[in-house]
């Protein structure tokens, strides 16, 4: 197990290096430079602009800059923003917890609902409940999260307020005038986490259902029923655990979608996380921040996949780590 | 079972009618419906899939018939009346209302749909071309080529797709056609894996060996022997990939990295509308609903096609 972990962790190094190289190349081959904003600025002389470019090191070829960047990152220095010269790591550190809270909340929300819904659907096959779950999960599977997010804002923030009901905030992560206590944070996470989780919820429910149906048909379930176990014990003790195995893999595989979805949802809800930072820095040609933000997303994804693989082994004793 | 007996009675009646005629055509006597004909029969019985199919056809006609829609509404998609902004549906002759610039939303929806559908369809076709080539080469030749190509696919799959799309889109600042290629540059990995897996199992079949013995070249084996057998997977993949590419296009345009205004697309219509969520909810609702209906209908068609083309699942 520990050997396997070490090998996987070592395997992450070339993967992350590869990703960083590709992303750096893409970012720096883009025509246009962070100093374009000064080009038509009458208060900045052309020689000043040249000096800024020289100071930022932008006269070197991009592959030289990549290795400088890599060396700095390995020493824990993510550099400064091209835009406001603030250190990149402070921007990242203020955004990262928000993204983690959002992703984990929606992941838990999707898991907590999809597992019981899928199991009940499979056990009560072709019942009214099963049909309803199938129809709803199919309907939600292809819903655009940008649209769903806006509709939720219109419904629960705007309309509820106008009807005099308690309403939810339209975006952000805390009430700027309020106490920004725990309840305030919860209020702000409900709509984004629901929007992000609903697509996964729909997909996973269908998956749990079909995986459960497959397991229920197998011989060891019949054996368990034949020896007189209660239906509940058969379902939860025997079928459930085996049906969950493929789900762990699926959850691992959807982790890139989860962080990609977080990027979209954060922008819909003006939620100050890594995804919003990525889009804002890309729009502003602030490549040092964009680089760091994208690498963090990639890093989280790679870690998430690793965790899913390890969990799979923990849950399924037949898997040997070697 | 019902299908089988139907088939049997159909061929019986063929025999009878042939016997009554003067000539007996042996090829017709023994003809059973082909694989795709049988699949189509299964598909036609699937009410949900057929309804989705009708909806998809309607959306395609509405989108690609945008100039006709413009003629029927009598409004231009780009020209607005600034005295009539943010009208609700049905007000002053605007069936779906007007946007913040006083432009007719129904007309813009058709033109936006034309761009969105064109981008998504073109992206699916390009992704298929790349993915099927990479997948069949990797699966057929195996060895070093296979591992290099598949590690590359692994790297792409392990980064959130939307970040790569944003990067490529920042780099190329593409128009609609370029945007389709940018989306395709990301979307080919799924079909590449599927085709590779299928080719891996197919290439060891006896009929491939037989083809090789007769002296068929590699490309002939790939295109004439293997390709027809992966076609059904390809069809199902296309119809299931199209909705996710529709969503990608909409999301990119919404974030300002896709189709750029003044050219309307459903995504950037939603982007323009979002600021007015307090004043006109229909303005926000309509373009998103169009995206949703397009994605949903193709998704349901894909589910139906999967059931129809893979009889093993029809238990």
Short description:
The complex is a heterodimer of chains A (322) and B (315). Chain A is mainly α.
Q: Overview of this structure, please?
A:
The complex is a heterodimer of chains A (322) and B (315). Chain A is mainly α. Chain A folds into 2 domains: 2-74, no CATH class; 88-315, MetI-like fold. Chain A contains 12 helices and no strands. Chain A has helices at residues 2-29, 46-56, 62-74, 88-123, 128-141, 145-163, 182-216, 219-226, 231-253, 255-268, 274-283, 287-315. In chain A, helix 7 crosses helix 9 (231-253). The longest helix of chain A has 36 residues, at 88-123. Chain A is globular. With 315 residues, chain B is mostly helical. Chain B folds into 2 domains: 1-32; 35-308, MetI-like fold (Orthogonal Bundle). Helices cover 74% and strands 0% of the residues of chain B. Chain B contains 13 helices and no strands. Chain B has helices at 2-20, 26-29, 35-45, 47-64, 66-73, 105-141, 143-157, 161-172, 176-202, 206-213, 218-255, 266-273, 281-309. The longest helix of chain B has 38 residues, at 218-255. The radius of gyration of chain B is 24 Å and the shape is elongated. Mean pLDDT of chain B is 82; it is low at 1-18. Classes of the chains: A mainly alpha (322), B mainly alpha (315). Chain A binds chain B through residues 15, 18-19, 22-23, 26-27, 29-30, 138-139, 141-147, 150-151, 153-154, 158, 256-257, 259-260, 263-264, 267, 278-279, 282-283, 294, 297-298, 301-302, 305, and chain B through 154-155, 157-163, 166-168, 170-171, 243-244, 247, 250-251, 254-257, 267, 270, 274, 277-278, 281, 284-285, 287-289, 291-292, 295-296, 299-300, 303.
């Amino acid at each position: 197990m520990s050997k396997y972990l070490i090998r996987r962790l070592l395997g992450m190094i070339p993967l992350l290096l590869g990703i960083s190289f590709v992303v750096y190349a893409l970012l720096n081959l883009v025509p246009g430079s962070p100093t374009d904003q000064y080009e038509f600025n009458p208060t900045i002389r052309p020689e000043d602009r040249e000096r800024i470019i020289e100071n930022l090191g932008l006269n070197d070829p991009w592959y030289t800059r990549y290795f400088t960047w890599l060396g700095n990152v390995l020493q824990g220095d993510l550099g400064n923003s091209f835009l406001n010269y603030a250190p990149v790591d402070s921007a990242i550190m203020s955004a990262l917890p928000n993204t983690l809270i959002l992703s984990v909340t929606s992941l838990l929300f999707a898991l907590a609902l999809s597992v019981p819904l899928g199991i009940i659907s499979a056990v009560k096959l072709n019942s009214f409940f099963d049909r309803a779950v199938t129809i709803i999960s199919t309907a939600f599977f292809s819903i655009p999260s940008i649209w769903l997010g806006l509709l939720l804002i219109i419904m629960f923030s705007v309309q509820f307020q106008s009807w005099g009901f308690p309403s939810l905030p339209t975006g952000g992560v805390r009430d700027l005038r309020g106490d920004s206590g725990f309840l305030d944070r919860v209020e702000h996470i409900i709509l984004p986490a629901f929007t992000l989780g609903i697509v996964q919820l729909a997909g996973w429910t269908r998956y749990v259902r079909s995986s459960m149906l497959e397991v229920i048909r197998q011989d060891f379930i019949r054996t368990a029923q034949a020896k007189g176990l209660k239906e509940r014990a058969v379902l939860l003790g025997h079928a459930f655990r085996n049906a969950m195995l493929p789900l762990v893999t699926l959850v691992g595989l959807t982790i890139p979608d989860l962080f990609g979805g977080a990027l979209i949802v954060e922008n819909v809800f003006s939620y100050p996380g890594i995804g919003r930072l990525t889009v804002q820095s890309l729009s502003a040609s602030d490549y040092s921040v964009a680089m760091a933000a994208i690498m963090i997303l990639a890093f989280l994804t790679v870690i998430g996949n690793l965790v899913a693989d390890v969990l799979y082994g923990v849950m399924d004793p037949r898997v040997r780590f070697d | 079972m019902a299908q089988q007996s139907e088939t049997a009675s159909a061929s019986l009646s063929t025999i009878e009618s042939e016997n009554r005629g003067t000539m007996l055509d042996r090829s017709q006597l023994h003809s059973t419906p082909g694989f795709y004909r049988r699949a189509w029969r299964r598909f036609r019985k699937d009410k949900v899939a057929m309804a989705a199919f009708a909806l998809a056809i309607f959306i395609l006609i509405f989108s690609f018939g945008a100039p006709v829609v413009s003629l029927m509404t009598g409004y231009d998609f780009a020209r607005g009346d600034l005295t009539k902004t943010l009208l609700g549906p049905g007000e002053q002759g605007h069936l779906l209302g007007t946007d913040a610039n006083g432009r007719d939303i129904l007309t813009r929806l058709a033109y936006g749909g034309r761009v969105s559908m064109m981008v998504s369809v073109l992206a699916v076709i390009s992704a298929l071309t790349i993915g099927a080539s990479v997948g069949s080469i990797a699966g057929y030749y195996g060895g070093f080529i296979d591992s290099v190509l598949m590690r590359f696919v692994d790297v792409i799959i392990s980064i959130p797709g939307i970040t790569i799309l944003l990067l490529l889109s920042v780099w190329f600042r593409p128009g609609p056609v370029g945007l389709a290629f940018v989306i395709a540059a990301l979307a080919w990995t799924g079909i590449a894996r599927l085709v590779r897996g299928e080719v891996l199992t197919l290439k060891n079949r006896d009929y491939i060996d037989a083809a090789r013995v007769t002296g068929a070249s590699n490309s002939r084996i790939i295109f004439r022997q293997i390709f027809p057998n992966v076609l059904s997977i390809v069809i199902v993949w296309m119809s299931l990939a199209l909705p996710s590419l529709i969503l990608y296009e909409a999301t990119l345009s919404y974030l300002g990295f896709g189709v750029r205004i003044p050219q309307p697309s459903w995504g950037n219509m939603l982007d323009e509308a979002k600021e007015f969520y307090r004043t006109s909810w229909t303005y926000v609702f309509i373009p998103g609903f169009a995206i949703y209906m397009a994605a949903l209908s193709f998704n349901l068609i894909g589910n139906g096609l999967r059931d129809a083309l893979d009889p093993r699942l029809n238990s």
